[in-house]
Design a protein that fits this description.
Oligomer: heterodimer
Number of strands of chain A: 30
CATH architecture of the largest domain in chain A: 3-Layer(aba) Sandwich
Radius of gyration of chain B: 25 Å
Distance between the termini of chain A: 28 Å
Number of domains of chain B: 2
CATH superfamily of the largest domain in chain A: Zn-dependent exopeptidases
Order of helices and strands of chain B: HEEHEEHHEEH
C-alpha cells in the first residue's frame, strides 16, 4: 500500500516558518555586527521582535499538532485522516474516515446528525456520548462534535464504533494511530545469512515500499502506507557482529524498522518488492570480498531521511526514484478536485469524489502487482492540468493513468491522446502540446491491454482517442479511463467492489505490458 | 395650527408618492418577467435561402459511442462560409429534436464560422452550447468529432478546425474535451472512420 503523492500547494505554514526563521537570523546577525545610528530599531520594533522570539518555542508544538494523522489500512484502500484536538481529546471526521470504504451520505436536522453508510443508518447528537447505529446504542469516549456541518468522533471511540459500520474486525493501535480493518496486517520475517557476507533478509507477504534512510550505525525503513505490524518480538537480536538488531516501532500512523549494524548497509528489493535484503555497502563489501552488484539497490548516501511524523499523503514528499528502482513507477491521476468538481454525477455526487476513491483503489492494485505509485491527488485539492503533466513528467514514470467518471453510459471507456502520430519532436526538447507523440504507439498498446482486461471482467468497454489534457503533455505512455455505471446503475460508481473490479482490471492490463513499459527509452 | 389648505396639499402629495411607488414596483416586476424570455429566445437567424442540396451529417450516437453518417437535404446559400454555418445548424437541429441520441441544449447555436486559408475553419459556438453541454469525455468528444467531421465532409479544403465560445478561446467544452488546440481533420477522420 505504499505510494507517494504530489506535494500540494498548502505549504503556506512551512513557508511562513521559514520566512520567520530567516528574518530572526538576519536580526541576530545584525545585532552581532552592530547597527549604524540610522538603523537602530525603534522600541516598538524591538518589542515585536521580542514577542516573536518568545513565540518561537511554541511553533514546533503547533506544527506537530497539525501533522497528527490516523492511518487506515483496509483491503480496499489505505489512507490517512487528519486528527483534530478538541478539549484535550483527539477527533477525526467521520465522513472522511468512512468515505473511502463505502458510500456515505449525511444530513443534520432537529439537532441530530445522521449518516447512512452503505445500508447502515446511524444517528449522533452533538455534545452527547451516546449514539445509535442500526437502532442499537453505541457509546463514545468523548462527546460527538459537529463543525461546519461535519461530524467528528473521538479517536478513542473508533475501536468499538467502526465494527458496527464495517461488519469486519477492526484492530486499532490507538497509541500509534494506526487502524487495521480486516486481515490486512503484514508481519516482517527476519532471516540472517552469513554466506558470503552477513546480510539480513526481511520478507513480507505482500509488496512493500518503505522510505529508507541511514545514519551511522543504523538503517531505517519507514512504512507510511504499508500495514506493517510488529513481528512476534518487537526487538530481534542477531548473533552477529555486523548486523546486530532489528527493532520495530510505530507512532503517528507510521511504522518503522530500525536495523542496527556496525557497518553502512544498503537495501536491495527483490521478489516483487516482497523481500528486502540488507547487506554491506559496496565500499565495505569490496574491501572484504566480492559481492555481485545487485540491481535495485538503495544506496545509503543518496537517500534522505524523512521525519517520522509523516504528513498526509497529499502533502508528503514525492517518490525518490532510487527507492523503487526495481519497481516501475506508475502515475495515477484522479481527475478534477478542489474547486473543479468535474461532472455532476448526481445532485450530490461529483466526479472528483468518485475519481479520488477510484484512484486510491488503483494505487493499491498496482502496488500489489509490484508497481510503485505516485498518486497525484490524495485529497480534495486543486491541481491544474499543467501541474499534473509536470509532476508526471518529473517523476519519470513508466505509465500515466488519468481517471474519470461519468453518469450516463455503461461500463468503461479507455482513451489515448487524440493527436497525429507524426507530430515531430526533434532534439532534446519536446513541444509541450505534442509531448505525447513519441509515446503514443505504446499508449495505444496500454489502452488495448486495459480494454482487454476490462472485457474479461464483464465490463462493456469502448476504446477511443480523445482530445483530453493532459494526455498530450505527458512524455510517457498515457491513457485515460472513464468509469461509467454498471448493471446496478449510478450506485455502482460509489461501490467499492465495482471500483475495485475496474481498478484490478486496469492494473492487470498495465501489468501485461509491463516489460514494454519498462523498456521505454 | 396647520392651515387646512397645507394639510390637504401634503395629504395629496403623500398619496401620490405611495401610488407612484406601487406603479414603479409593478413596472419593475413586469420588466423582470420579460427579461428571461428575451434571453432564453434562440438567436434570430435569417432562414437560409438557396437551392436544396444533399449533405452528409456525421451524427453522434451516445449509446454506440460513435458517429453515423446521415444524408440530409438542406437549403444552402451560395457563400462558402454561410454554407458551413447552415451545415452545422442543420446538424444541431438533429441534436435538438426530442428523443435525440446525442441531445444538445435547445439554446445551443453556431454564432458563426470563419474559413481562413489555408484550410482552417474557426467555429464560434454560443455560450449556451458549451455551458449547457453534458460533461464527460465521450459525450464531449462525440460533439467535437461530429462538428469537425461534418464540416470536413461537406466543405472541401478544411484541414484543421478551431472551436471558440462566444468569440473567445475556452479551455474545455464542458470540463473534458480540450478546445485550446486545433483539431487535425485527418486525425479526427481516422478516429471516426476507424471506430
Amino acid at each position: 500500500m505504499a505510494g507517494h503523492s504530489l506535494p500540494s500547494s498548502k505549504g503556506h505554514g512551512q513557508g511562513t516558518v521559514a520566512w520567520f526563521s530567516l528574518e530572526i537570523g538576519r536580526w541576530r546577525k545584525r545585532r552581532q555586527t552592530g547597527y549604524r545610528l540610522a538603523e537602530v530599531p525603534s522600541i516598538t520594533t524591538k518589542k515585536i521582535l521580542a514577542l516573536l522570539l518568545a513565540m518561537l518555542p511554541l511553533l514546533p508544538e503547533a506544527t506537530s499538532a497539525d501533522e497528527r494523522q490516523l492511518s487506515v489500512y483496509a483491503p480496499v484502500a489505505t489512507y490517512n485522516v487528519p486528527i483534530q484536538e478538541r478539549s484535550g481529546h483527539e477527533y477525526v471526521g467521520l465522513l472522511e474516515l468512512l468515505e473511502p470504504l463505502g458510500r456515505i451520505t449525511s444530513e443534520a436536522s432537529a439537532g441530530r446528525w445522521r449518516i447512512r453508510f452503505d445500508a447502515i443508518d446511524a444517528e449522533f447528537v452533538p455534545g452527547k456520548t451516546r449514539a445509535r447505529v442500526q437502532g442499537r446504542e453505541a457509546d463514545l469516549t468523548s462527546p460527538f462534535l459537529v463543525e461546519n456541518g461535519r461530524g467528528f468522533v473521538s479517536v478513542a471511540s473508533l475501536g468499538t464504533l467502526l465494527p458496527k459500520f464495517l461488519g469486519s474486525p477492526v484492530n486499532f493501535h490507538e497509541s500509534a494511530r494506526r487502524l487495521f480493518i480486516g486481515d490486512v496486517a503484514i508481519r516482517p520475517n527476519f532471516r540472517l545469512e552469513t554466506d558470503p557476507q552477513p546480510h539480513l533478509v526481511v520478507n513480507f507477504a505482500v509488496p512493500v515500499n518503505p522510505t529508507i534512510s541511514t545514519e551511522p550505525g543504523r538503517l531505517r525503513m519507514v512504512f507510511k502506507h504499508d500495514p506493517v505490524v510488529a513481528p512476534e518480538n518487537p526487538t530481534s537480536s542477531f548473533d552477529n557482529k555486523v548486523i546486530t538488531q532489528a527493532t520495530f516501532s510505530e507512532s503517528n500512523g507510521v511504522a518503522e524498522l530500525e536495523i542496527a549494524a556496525t557497518i553502512p548497509l544498503i537495501a536491495r528489493f527483490s521478489n516483487n518488492a516482497k523481500t528486502i535484503t540488507l547487506s554491506a555497502a559496496p565500499s565495505v563489501a569490496s574491501a572484504n570480498s566480492t559481492v555481485p552488484p545487485a540491481q535495485g539497490i538503495v544506496t545509503p548516501a543518496t537517500t534522505s531521511p524523512l521525519p517520522p511524523t509523516a504528513q498526509a499523503p497529499s502533502q508528503s514528499a514525492p517518490a525518490n526514484p532510487q527507492q523503487s528502482v526495481n519497481r516501475p513507477l506508475a502515475v495515477v491521476d484522479p481527475a478534477h478536485g478542489g474547486e473543479e468538481r468535474g461532472a455532476a454525477l448526481t445532485d450530490k455526487l461529483s466526479e472528483k469524489d468518485v475519481t479520488l476513491g477510484f484512484g486510491r483503489l488503483l494505487r493499491h492494485e498496482l502496488e500489489i502487482r509490484g508497481f510503485a505509485v505516485l498518486l497525484l491527488r490524495d485529497g480534495d485539492n486543486t491541481l491544474t492540468l499543467d501541474q499534473r503533466a509536470g509532476a508526471a513528467n518529473a517523476a519519470h514514470a513508466v505509465v500515466y493513468v488519468s481517471l474519470h467518471a461519468v453518469s450516463p453510459g455503461n461500463g468503461a471507456a479507455v482513451y489515448a491522446a487524440l493527436m497525429p502520430v507524426a507530430a515531430q519532436n526533434s532534439g532534446t526538447f519536446r513541444a509541450w502540446n505534442s509531448a505525447q507523440a513519441s509515446a503514443l504507439p505504446v499508449s495505444r498498446m496500454v489502452e488495448s491491454a486495459i480494454a482487454s482486461e476490462l472485457t474479461k471482467k464483464q465490463f462493456q468497454v469502448r476504446e477511443a482517442a480523445a482530445s483530453l489534457r493532459p494526455l498530450n503533455n505527458v512524455v510517457m505512455p498515457a491513457i485515460a479511463v472513464e468509469l461509467a455505471p454498471g448493471p446496478n446503475g449510478i450506485s455502482d460508481l460509489t461501490s467499492a467492489s465495482y471500483q475495485q473490479k475496474a481498478a484490478a482490471a486496469i492494473a492487470d492490463g498495465i501489468n501485461t505490458v509491463r516489460d514494454r513499459l519498462v523498456g521505454q527509452p | 395650527m396647520i392651515p387646512r389648505s397645507l394639510f390637504i396639499t401634503i395629504s395629496i402629495m403623500l398619496v401620490l408618492v405611495v401610488a407612484l411607488g406601487f406603479y414603479f414596483r409593478r413596472m419593475q416586476q413586469q420588466a423582470y418577467e420579460l427579461e428571461p424570455a428575451a434571453t432564453a429566445a434562440l438567436p434570430v437567424t435569417p432562414p437560409a435561402s438557396g437551392p436544396t442540396e444533399n449533405v452528409t451529417l456525421y451524427v453522434a450516437d451516445d449509446a454506440a459511442g460513435e458517429l453515423h453518417p446521415e444524408s440530409a437535404k438542406i437549403p444552402l446559400p451560395a457563400g462558402r462560409q454561410q454554407r458551413a454555418e447552415e451545415l452545422l445548424r442543420a446538424l444541431l437541429r438533429v441534436y435538438q429534436q426530442p428523443g435525440a441520441v446525442h441531445p444538445l441544449a435547445a439554446a445551443s447555436d453556431i454564432r458563426s464560422i470563419y474559413l481562413v486559408d489555408p484550410g482552417v475553419a474557426v467555429v464560434d459556438l454560443n455560450a449556451a452550447f458549451a455551458d449547457q453541454h453534458r460533461s464527460g469525455i465521450m459525450v464531449e468528444q462525440l460533439t467535437v468529432n461530429s462538428l469537425v467531421e461534418t464540416l470536413a465532409a461537406n466543405v472541401p479544403g478544411i484541414q484543421s478546425v478551431s472551436i471558440l465560445v462566444e468569440g473567445k478561446p475556452r479551455d474545455t467544452l464542458a470540463g473534458h474535451a480540450d478546445l485550446t488546440q486545433f483539431f487535425d481533420v485527418p486525425t479526427v477522420s481516422h478516429v471516426v472512420n476507424g471506430q
